[in-house]
């Protein structure tokens, strides 16, 4: 991947997509084609000051690609409907499954490498573990329509005889960091906890409804967004074996750890209140996720990940307290 190559990024106005745009700009990549719906005004600051060639509405992307053959050399497909509380599968089928299938077909037909966003939501309750082996994919039982749509595309991709020259589907775990400010309910716990501390001096966490876990001891693999985009770019540059790759740290931490890291960064005593998990997500709630990172490490990715404390400290001090974007 050279600085003069043209790179298409879908979901470019969203959280991870806009961070990737900024990251690539800082690395000297300006020939970017940005695709998104661009209709949500809250997303506008995500692209402020960033350098790119053109913005294309997601609904017009395939017409644009047809009208611009050979223009794009790489595709990062990060666009999706990511609302895990959206229960209408047709929304996810259209935006996550069918849209991705169409983009895959373009990449395969034109020999364009493709890195796309899958999700740890595909692992469901974790009854089959969190290992990104391809033979496990067909056994997974996601807990919501979003996870189902992501897993359906993963399964479909593995079955395709015609493929891009390189492709990687990244199973994102709990990503946090700057540029997520527009996500509302779906923003990270860190984002919500910081704002709650600023307004009330305390944080509310979900009470455990599982006998094996104490309140606040539910466990997640939290990964800082900078680590996520570094993995995306590394895969595109080094192109190991095609397939699915976990994108976490491999070290799960509790929500209590996370909140205490925020209080520590703000130099405040921890003040946590536990509340019932909402009924609409209680029976689909994951109590433990931890990425098995063996495959990515074996592929040659050796960069260290931010610890939870390091990521929280940078997010809070550099971005949340200043309102900055990357």
Automatic annotation (TrEMBL):
Residues the record marks as active site: 146, 183
Residue ranges constituting the NAD-dependent epimerase/dehydratase domain according to the UniProt record: 7-248
Essential cofactor(s): NADP(+)
EC numbers: 5.1.3.20
Keywords: Carbohydrate metabolism, Isomerase, NADP
Positions contributing to substrate binding: 174, 185, 192, 206-209, 220, 285
Alphabetical list of InterPro entries matching this protein: Epimerase_deHydtase, Heptose_epim, NAD(P)-bd_dom_sf
Superkingdom of the organism of origin: Bacteria
Pathway as given in its UniProt record: Nucleotide-sugar biosynthesis; ADP-L-glycero-beta-D-manno-heptose biosynthesis; ADP-L-glycero-beta-D-manno-heptose from D-glycero-beta-D-manno-heptose 7-phosphate: step 4/4
Enzyme class: isomerase
Sequence positions that bind NADP(+): 15-16, 36-37, 43, 58, 78-82, 150, 175, 183
Cofactor binding notes: Binds 1 NADP(+) per subunit.
Role this protein plays: Catalyzes the interconversion between ADP-D-glycero-beta-D-manno-heptose and ADP-L-glycero-beta-D-manno-heptose via an epimerization at carbon 6 of the heptose.
Subunit and interaction comment: Homopentamer.
Domain statement: Contains a large N-terminal NADP-binding domain, and a smaller C-terminal substrate-binding domain.
Family that this chain belongs to: Belongs to the NAD(P)-dependent epimerase/dehydratase family. HldD subfamily.
Protein's name according to its UniProt entry: ADP-L-glycero-D-manno-heptose-6-epimerase
Source organism of the structure: Nemorincola caseinilytica
């Amino acid at each position: 991947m050279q600085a003069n190559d043209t790179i298409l990024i879908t979901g470019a106005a969203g959280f991870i997509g806009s961070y990737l745009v900024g990251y690539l700009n800082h690395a000297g990549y300006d020939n970017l084609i940005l695709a998104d719906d661009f209709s949500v005004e809250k997303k506008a600051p995500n692209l402020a000051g960033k350098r790119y060639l053109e913005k294309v509405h997601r609904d017009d992307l395939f017409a644009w690609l047809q009208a611009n053959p050979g223009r794009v050399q790489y595709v990062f497909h990060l666009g999706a409907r990511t609302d895990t509380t959206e229960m209408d599968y047709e929304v996810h089928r259209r935006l996550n499954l069918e849209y991705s299938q169409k983009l895959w077909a373009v990449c395969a037909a034109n020999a364009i490498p493709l890195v796309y966003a899958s999700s740890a939501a595909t692992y469901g309750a974790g009854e089959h573990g969190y290992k990104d082996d391809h033979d496990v994919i067909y056994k997974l039982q996601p807990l919501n329509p979003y996870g189902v749509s992501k897993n359906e595309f993963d399964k479909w991709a593995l079955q395709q005889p015609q493929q891009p020259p390189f492709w990687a589907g990244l199973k994102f775990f709990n990503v946090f960091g700057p540029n997520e400010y527009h996500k509302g309910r779906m923003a990270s716990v860190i984002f919500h906890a910081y704002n709650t501390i600023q307004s009330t001096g305390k944080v509310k966490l979900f009470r455990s409804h599982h006998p094996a876990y104490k309140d606040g001891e539910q466990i997640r693999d939290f990964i800082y967004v900078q680590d996520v985009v570094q993995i995306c770019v590394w895969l595109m540059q080094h192109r190991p074996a095609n397939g699915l790759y976990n994108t976490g740290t491999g070290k799960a931490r509790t929500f209590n750890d996370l909140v205490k890291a925020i209080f520590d960064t703000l130099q405040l005593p921890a003040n946590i209140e536990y509340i019932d998990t909402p009924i609409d997500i209680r029976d689909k709630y994951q109590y433990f996720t931890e990425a098995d990172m063996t495959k990515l490490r074996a592929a040659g990715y050796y960069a260290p990940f931010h610890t939870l404390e390091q990521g929280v400290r940078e997010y809070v001090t550099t971005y949340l307290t200043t309102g900055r974007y990357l």
